[in-house]
Design a protein that fits this description.
- It holds the Pfam family AAA_21.
- Keywords: Cell membrane, Ion transport, Iron, Iron transport, Membrane, Transport.
- One of its GO terms (biological process) is iron ion transport.
- With about 260 residues, this protein is an alpha/beta fold.
- Helix content is about 35%, strand content about 20%.
- The chain has eight helices and nine strands.
- It has a six-stranded mixed sheet, sandwiched between helices. It has a three-stranded antiparallel sheet with strand order 2-1-4, with no helix packed on it.
- Helix 7 (about 230-240) crosses helix 8 (about 240-260).
Length: about 260
């Protein structure tokens, strides 16, 4: 039995099996977020593994998609768990996921009632609230940013449920990202946790037992970490750090000269 008398489901993750777009429920095809390139009329996303990782550049729609998933799962679009509303709701990034949910459909087998939507932008609002009400391992804010994140994850991600992470690496050093990978492994190994995560970190993208997808001009496409733009950029940097930085600076000087011409 889980807490509050809720019985665990005797099935392994993933529980959310598929989402798809219902074109008939789109209020305005030209309005955001429905104008995003990946949201074509036959958009569909299948979850066949417990962990799904999504890569892509800023503005591609990663946060919008995750926010839409979170609302479908019963979480607040600003972050948190079911029935939880952040203290400062104005901190939520207006990504359009709430609007997206109107036109999304989902297949659950079965639908789980527990989980969490993590957003870096609202973490401290969440942490202040949990500290105030006496979370079981409270006092998140007495730790460094990265330590607070990890402590929060370790407390919240032990139960059966669906967990949605929007760029968890934002406050994690490379060493802390390795610790987060260990947490992902424990969640995966338990077979009781489904994870959907958007990230820019090649370290997190490299988790071995995940479905890795990348936003392209054609939509969400399966990929490998070595094929992502993030990995290629980091590879160029590590091959020649000084030359990589100098080339970037030279581009700035060139753009300024062209602007003055």
């Amino acid at each position: 039995m889980g807490s509050r008398g809720k019985r665990d489901i005797n099935l392994p993750a993933p529980y959310l099996k598929r989402i798809w777009l219902d074109p008939e429920r789109i209020p305005d095809r030209d309005a955001y977020p429905f104008c995003l390139p990946f949201l074509h009329d036959d958009f569909s996303l299948t979850f066949d593994r417990a962990i799904t990782i999504i890569a892509g550049e800023n503005g591609a729609g990663k946060s919008t998609l995750l926010e839409g998933l979170a609302v479908m799962a019963g979480f607040d679009e600003a972050g948190g768990g079911k029935g939880y509303r952040t203290v400062d709701h104005s901190q939520a990034v207006e990504e359009g996921g709430g609007e997206l949910t109107v036109a999304l459909r989902a297949s659950w087998v079965p639908k789980v009632s527990y989980g969490w939507f993590f957003r870096a932008e609202t973490f401290f609002s969440v942490a202040r609230y949990l500290d105030a009400v006496g979370s079981t391992s409270a006092d998140f804010l007495s730790y460094s940013h990265g330590e607070g994140f990890l402590r929060f994850f370790e407390e919240r991600c032990q139960r059966q449920g669906i967990f949605i992470f929007d760029e968890p690496e934002s406050a994690l050093s490379p060493t802390r990202q390795m610790e987060f990978l260990k947490l992902l492994y424990r969640m995966d190994k338990s077979q009781r946790c489904q994870v959907v995560m958007a990230t820019h970190s090649p370290v997190l993208m490299a988790y071995p037992n995940a479905t890795l997808l990348e936003f392209t001009k054609y939509g969400l496409e399966p990929t490998t970490v070595e094929q992502t733009d993030h990995y290629k950029a980091m590879q160029e940097f590590f091959y020649d750090p000084r030359g990589f930085v100098e080339a970037a600076i030279e581009e700035v000087d060139l753009e300024e000269r062209e602007g003055d011409a």
